[in-house]
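Weekly modeling sync, notes
Attendees: S.R. (lead), two postdocs, one rotation student

Agenda item 3: backlog of single-chain predictions. S.R. asked that every request posted to the team notebook include the full sequence so nobody has to chase files. The rotation student volunteered to paste the first one in as an example of the format we agreed on. Action items at the bottom.

Example entry:
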Amino acid sequence: MHPLLNLLVLITKFNCLSFLIQDWQLQILSVGLLVSWVNLVLFYKIFPFLGMYVHMFIATAQSFLGVVGVFYVWVVGFALTYYMLLQNQVGACVPHSNYSESIESWVLLSIYCGFI
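Predicted structure, as returned to the notebook:
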């Protein structure tokens, strides 16, 4: 791990100088830690007893990301449709008054109907 990431982890863990840490620094820290972890996992491919598990993890992650990508397109498409059709409805309780509520209702409907 990079020494600056170690320093940011120590500063945030022990809460010293926390007034100097900005939100964007914590976001960079989290991305850096994720990249470091992925690098460590990919490094394990050279060991014969761990390499097959890394290859299985990579294959599973690729399949999962493909499915999530297609599912995301469906969620955004249906949520935009709900939002466009129901945004001008007048009433006390408007179910789709913003975009996030449209996504939420579509996901909950998909779970209820057994599609997920």
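Discussion: group reviewed the output briefly. The mean pLDDT is 76.
Action items: rotation student to repeat for the remaining queue; S.R. to check formatting next week.
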